[in-house]
Amino acid sequence: MKLPNGFGSVYKLSGKRRNPYVAKKTKGWEINPETGKSKQLYVTIGYYPTRKDALNALAEYNNDPYDLHPATITFKEVYERWSEIHFEKIKDTNGYKAAFNTSRDLWNMKFGEIKLDHLQRVVDESGKNTPTLKTLKILWGLMYDYAVIREIVSQNKRDMVRYVDISKAGNPNSYDRKPFSKKEIATLWKSKDSNVYVTVILILIYSGVRIGELLDLEKTDIHLDERWFYVRESKTESGIREVPIAEKIVPFFEYWLSRNCEHFICTPDDEPFTYRNYYDSYWIPLMLELGLGKYIDDETKKEPVYDGHRPHDTRHTCISLLTEKKVDDRFIKKIVGHKGQGVTETVYTHIELLTKLEAINLI
Known about the structure:
The protein is α+β, with helices and mostly antiparallel strands. The protein is built from 14 helices and 8 strands. It has helices spanning 51-63, 75-86, 94-102, 116-124, 130-149, 155-160, 182-191, 198-205, 211-216, 250-257, 275-289, 312-324, 329-336, 350-360; strands at residues 9-12, 21-31, 38-48, 222-223, 228-231, 241-244, 293-296, 305-308.
């Protein structure tokens, strides 16, 4: 049965899930100032075991459109509401805004479901120095203070921030990131027809893009005829770049471009990915299935933790493969958007594209 216009929508996620039904409602539109294109914005009401439960939740939301509902409010929403109040009291907000960007992996998580392990992972994978991580902890503490006062979380959740360890500051390799081996890459190629999301891993390996950069790509950023795509959103200034498309992964681009989704990579329901959705529901299951990752017991945690390749390993793999083929380090940096290059090198032109294409086709 079709729901009334403006009521919202309910759909089922693929795979075996405890709560496969999603209730979602449009909350407005956002216009890209560069392209003039508008993008619909949604608020996710929650995830439910049955369609009936999801419809009931959607109906309750329409009757009482809560802003600070403890069960559904996300990290990003808490930050937006906290910053509206806090930023009026201070002059320099840049440090907090940078800390919020560092917390990108948490943005779409339900605030009440964030655990110490999630916060620690952000710190460990940030590669930031001690002063930056101190600001990050301060931001989290202030956000949790706000959340406790408004009864979004309990005081116990607020205390969790104290236990975030920033002693490994400046070490982006705290998870011992390792490139995929030749044997592991061969396994991925053999499995590409059994699960289409294996092609996403191969695209990452043969382009060197960060996972966030890939998930943010829209179809308008892809120029397949000329064999390149444009990364317009990146965590660093040098990350804004033209990336060559290796000939061997052109069929993967053709497939994803044929999907009915504005974004380049999308869910089985043709919805854009969030990082957590991709990592938890697609990356880890594939790594486990292909024998490239496993769960291990950890005495410091109450539940097994994932041990295996992470998306950033694909970036290291690309760099290793290019280095092995003796590609000039300057062009490796231009391909992967390495932050070590100078500011004057961040503007990419078609003059260099042919050289980058020749380089990426070597691997």
